[in-house]
Design a protein that fits this description.
Strand order of the largest sheet: 2-1-4-5-6-7
Largest sheet: 6 strands, antiparallel
Helix content: 55-70%
Number of strands: 21
Radius of gyration: 63 Å
Strand content: 5-15%
Oligomer: single chain
Distance between the termini: 61 Å
């Protein structure tokens, strides 16, 4: 349950006669019919007087919207932007409230604009709407409660309130704030109690049925249980069978384990013998290793000696070769001396021939001018090609850019040509921000509806003529275009629940499809005045949509004329036409309720923004022209790119040809330079060779040097021969030592081999023992696994417990005997026959269900009693206070009716525990001979209902803790006698202490009414023909003169 609201404190008047929360000043700007308005209402009864259309209801709308109300509660437009005065962009409402003290002033301002945006200011500071609501709730201002705030367009709603709704509104408006909270809690708890009682009753019935079924099956269940006992005995014996098999496997395992232990002992003895034989072998091996080490050491010395001798022999051989080489050189020098002079002569001749060739080589001058010309041409061609490439890149970028723009243009054109999508966009742009979501939801859930659902209405209506679209959109309010229309109450409820958050209207049409209206015919008189059609004839829509538009907005009474009708507008009225349209203007006439005079109005026709948004010819034509221009531009750019490509290829080919020519010239220049360098190198080489030959020493000096070198080499050969002799003597000693140590090692190796043969024989015996041990282990392991498996199987069948062990002792002790006993017991069980094999399972399952249901039934009974006690406790707190409140209202209501020479009473319509049916019955009678009748449209006239309504509101005065009440034109339709009596009641109620501030709006008052000091009269001076009178009445002196004349008269 929600936390209870705090009690509203009793308020009292201050020295300025105002109550906290009273309206002390209202200021509006560019709001509905007003440019500017500022008024200061009185603290008690304020009579707001003015002719119809002067703006009284504008004041009511300003109070509602300025104090946090939504446009929907006024019954007019559904958006706040519609309340901005026509022709203006924005406006504001400023309301000043009296605070808790005379000094404290609370100013609330709401700025609105045609874009449906609101800005809230509290005492001049911008604040969120949440803070404004908190201030309003602080003074218990409820603009959405019809008992506090009754605008003109919702008077009929108050009369239509059911007794239940009237009770809810009264609880919210007067009395203890806990009453509506407690009432709502009682409604919820009583609904839950009814559902819970139904559940308890159903559980009781189920419990009784289950018990009856089990009682019928008890005898069959007993026979089943006997069979189950025999089968259970069989199962017990079957449980012992795996344990007997386990015992057998255990005996086999124990025998295998003993055999394994014997094999292990034999293996240990063989291993011990092998170890005893191996110890002497190890000693011999160590001794042989020491002998081998000495052998290797001497062998190493012998190898080192051999290497030294080999090196010395190689050195001696090398020196011998060098000696022979020296002698050969001396012989060669003697032979070459004869041809040396001839070689020098030939070298001089070769040098002279090479110098002659170099001198005869013609000079080569490279063509620098030609190379420079080719280079300039190549650079020029490359610059031109670079420009072409840049231009080509720019053109390609333009192509990509224009292709993107063309795609966007095509997509935009496709979107604009989609009628439904465009109309939904128009609705969203005009303020219906969630219309796409609402439309998609309806499309996705169409299969759930009983009948066809239409909407939004704008999507369903088709108007072919632009002028007619202007007329239709101007005639039908904006909120209807975003409405959805159903044809079944359940469909309406579904849409209302799911589309509430999308800010759309749901209308249910219950018309008869078989009813057809008469076709429209233009009379000769109409045709003469230019009338050629009617507003319900100029558009197409589904039947239900057209019926709603026609029935709710009187399209069949609105006619369409031509420009000729503008000139003859004054003659139209004699045909009984009160509403018609021309291409330029909209004419309307209305007859006064209080007389026979007729007033008319004329408004300029506004262009349609919604209906014809799909035929925005200029935009579509502009897009199509843009598409064509882009396609032509792309064609031109493609041609230009191809031309640039050809030109670029030509320039690149020409530059490549010139580059090849330049390279050929450069290659020729390099060839000539290389040829001259070759001739110069040849001359230099021959000069160098000649100089070398001339610098050679003479023959005798060279031979002397060679003889000395040969003598030195022979000395080195002699030294090497002596070293070889010493090494040979040392090598003989090393060879003797190697032979001795090798023989000792061979003897040790023979002994080791003989001992190893004995060890291998013993190892073979040990290996056989090891294999035998492995076989024994494997056999024991296999038996152990079988034993474990048998044990797991036996344990899975039955665990050995003291009880099980005692049961096993009573059974046969061998496998054969146990199996025979099992077969006998199974035969006994099979001899017991019955039809339903699942009867015991069903019986036990049903018995468990019975126990569970019984426990739940007991707890439900306790819970039911607890809920009843809780409801009775809450009812004992709520009902006496409600009865007392209704009694107080009845006392005042009856007294007020008696003073008007009629009778009335207010009673509480009680319905025991059906708290959602509790209501307030208002019974009245206006004739002495009649009986009290419940207030409704069937028993009372409109004036009688108005009298009853205002007297009921007056009866709430003393009980209401709200700061003010607003009633708009409630006295209309009353006869003069009832109106006079009603007015006296209002004046008397306003004169009482601590009654709330009251606003009564009316176009007129009866003459010779009795007023008191509690009455304040606010006269609406608004309209084009009262400019001069308003100036007179705006003067304080003129007002004083009028009051003086009134004093003299009375």
């Amino acid at each position: 349950m929600a936390e209870p609201r705090a009690k509203r404190p009793k308020i009292s008047r201050g020295e300025d006669d105002y109550l906290p929360g009273n309206i002390v000043e209202i200021e509006i700007h560019n709001f509905m019919t007003f440019n500017n308005l500022k008024c200061k209402p009185g603290s008690r009864l304020n009579l707001v007087i003015g002719p119809n259309g002067s703006g009284k209801s504008s004041l009511v709308c300003a109070i509602a919207l300025g104090l946090g109300g939504e446009p929907q509660l006024l019954g007019r437009a559904s958006t706040v932007g519609a309340y901005v005065k026509r022709g203006e962009e924005s406006g504001y409402i400023k309301i000043s409230l009296r605070g808790d003290t005379k000094v404290e002033k609370i100013t609330i301002m709401r700025k609105i604009d045609t874009r449906n945006k609101s800005e809230w200011l509290f005492n001049g500071k911008v604040v969120p709407k949440r803070e404004i609501i908190e201030v309003i709730q602080r003074f218990n201002i409820q603009v959405n409660n019809l008992t506090q705030f009754l605008p003109q367009d919702r008077v009929c709603e108050f009369a239509k309130l059911t007794p239940v709704q009237l009770l809810e509104e009264t609880e919210k408006a007067v009395g203890d704030p806990q009453l509506p909270v407690q009432h709502h809690a009682l409604v919820e708890k009583s609904d839950e109690l009814k559902k819970f009682e139904l559940t308890v009753h159903k559980n009781r019935e189920s419990l009784d049925q289950l018990k009856a079924l089990n009682a019928e099956q008890e005898r069959d269940v007993e026979r089943v249980r006997q069979r189950e006992e025999l089968l259970a005995k069989v199962e017990s014996m079957k449980k012992k069978l795996p344990w007997l098999k386990y015992d057998m496997k255990k005996a086999e395992y124990v025998a295998a384990k003993e055999q394994e232990n014997d094999a292990k002992k034999k293996l240990d003895e063989a291993a011990k013998t092998v170890n005893e034989l191996r110890q002497p072998i190890e000693k011999q091996k160590q001794e042989k290793a020491a002998q081998d080490a000495k052998y290797k050491k001497v062998r190493g010395l012998l190898d080192g000696n051999s290497k030294k001798r080999l090196q010395l022999m190689e050195n001696e051989s090398r020196l011998s070769v060098q000696v022979r080489g020296k002698f050969n050189e001396m012989e060669e020098l003697r032979r070459q001396e004869q041809s040396h002079q001839e070689k020098i002569s030939r070298a001089k001749e070769d040098l002279a021939a090479a110098e002659l060739e170099l001198a005869n080589l013609p000079p080569y001058d490279p063509p620098r001018d030609e190379l420079e010309r080719l280079r300039a041409q190549i650079l020029e061609l490359e610059a031109a090609a670079g420009e072409k490439r840049s231009l080509k890149t720019e053109k390609e970028k333009l192509v990509v850019h224009n292709k993107g723009k063309l795609g966007q243009c095509i997509e935009r054109l496709r979107e604009m040509e989609n009628t439904n999508n465009k109309r939904l966009h128009a609705l969203r742009n005009s303020g219906a921000e969630k219309i796409f979501e609402a439309y998609r939801w309806v499309q996705e859930h169409r299969h759930e509806f009983k009948k066809d659902v239409y909407g939004p209405v704008l999507v369903e209506v088709n108007v072919s003529n632009r002028v007619h679209a202007d007329f239709l959109e101007g005639h039908v309010p904006y909120y209807i275009w975003k409405a959805f229309i159903t044809q079944h109450p359940e469909d309406r409820d579904i849409l209302f629940r799911n589309l509430r958050s999308f800010d759309v209207v749901v209308i249910n049409h219950v018309g008869d499809h078989e009813h057809h209206k008469e076709s429209f015919r233009v009379s000769e008189e109409m045709r003469a005045l230019g009338i050629y059609s009617r507003l319900d004839q100029v558009f197409d829509a589904p039947y239900a949509v057209k019926e709603v538009l026609t029935g709710q907005f009187g399209l069949e009474y609105s006619y369409i004329g031509s420009k000729e009708t503008d000139a003859k507008a004054d003659e139209i009225q004699r045909l009984g036409i009160m509403d018609f349209w021309t291409p330029e203007n909209h004419y309307r006439w209305s007859k006064s309720r209080y007389g026979s005079h007729v007033s008319g109005s004329m408004e300029a026709v506004d262009h349609s923004h919604l209906l014809l948004c799909n035929v925005d010819v200029s935009e579509i034509e502009r897009l199509r022209l843009k598409k064509k221009e882009l396609e032509e531009t792309l064609t031109v750019l493609d041609g230009s790119l191809k031309s640039l490509h050809c030109e670029l290829k030509f320039l690149e080919d020409e530059a490549a040809q010139l580059q090849r020519e330049r390279e050929d010239i450069i290659n020729t220049v390099q060839h000539e330079k290389r040829k001259r360098r070759e001739f110069e190198n040849r001359v230099n080489q021959r000069k160098l060779k000649l100089k070398t030959m001339e610098r050679e020493e003479d023959l005798d000096a060279v031979i002397a040097k060679l003889v000395d070198a040969a003598a030195n080499l022979n000395i080195q050969r002699f030294q090497s021969a002596m070293e070889i002799k010493n090494l040979l003597i040392e090598a003989v000693a090393f060879r003797r030592s190697v032979a001795e140590k090798n023989m000792a090692s061979i003897e040790l190796e023979t002994k080791i081999k003989e001992m190893e043969v004995s060890v291998k024989q013993q190892e073979k015996l040990a290996l056989q023992a090891s294999l035998h041990l492995e076989n024994c282990k494997k056999e024991a392991d296999d038996l152990r696994q079988q034993l474990l498996f048998a044990k797991r199987h036996a344990e899975s069948v039955a665990m050995i417990t003291p009880e099980v062990e005692q049961a096993f002792l009573k059974m046969p002790g061998t496998i054969e005997e146990l199996e025979a006993a099992i077969l006998d017991t199974i035969s006994q069980a099979n001899s017991i026959l019955f039809l339903n094999h699942n009867i015991l399972e069903e019986y036990e399952r049903r018995q468990k269900k019975i126990e569970a249901l019984a426990r739940k039934h007991e707890s439900d009974e306790v819970e039911l009693t607890s809920r009843m006690d809780e409801i009775n406790t809450l009812k004992e707190s709520w009902l006496p206070k409600l009865r007392n409140l209704v009694a107080q209202i009845n006392e005042t209501f009856s007294r007020n009716f008696q003073e008007m020479a009629v009778a009335g009473e207010v009673s509480l319509d009680e319905h025991d525990m059906d708290f959602d049916k509790y209501g307030i019955l208002v019974k009245v009678k206006f004739r002495q001979t009649g009986q009290l009748q419940v207030l409704s449209a069937h028993h009372q006239s409109g004036g009688e209902r108005s009298v009853s309504t205002i007297l009921y509101l007056v009866s709430l005065q003393d009980l209401t803790n709200c700061p003010f009440r607003v009633v708009d034109e409630i006295n209309q339709g009353m006869d003069p006698i009832n109106e006079r009596k009603m007015f006296q009641q209002l004046v008397r109620a306003a004169s009482q202490l601590n009654t709330p501030q009251c606003f009564l709006l009316t176009p007129k008052l009866l003459s010779d009414l009795e007023y008191s000091e509690a009455c304040s009269i606010l006269t609406i001076m608004n309209g084009p023909w009262i400019d001069q009178p308003s100036k007179v009445w705006s003067s304080g002196e003129s007002w004083g003169n009028v009051m003086g004349l009134l004093g003299e008269t009375h």
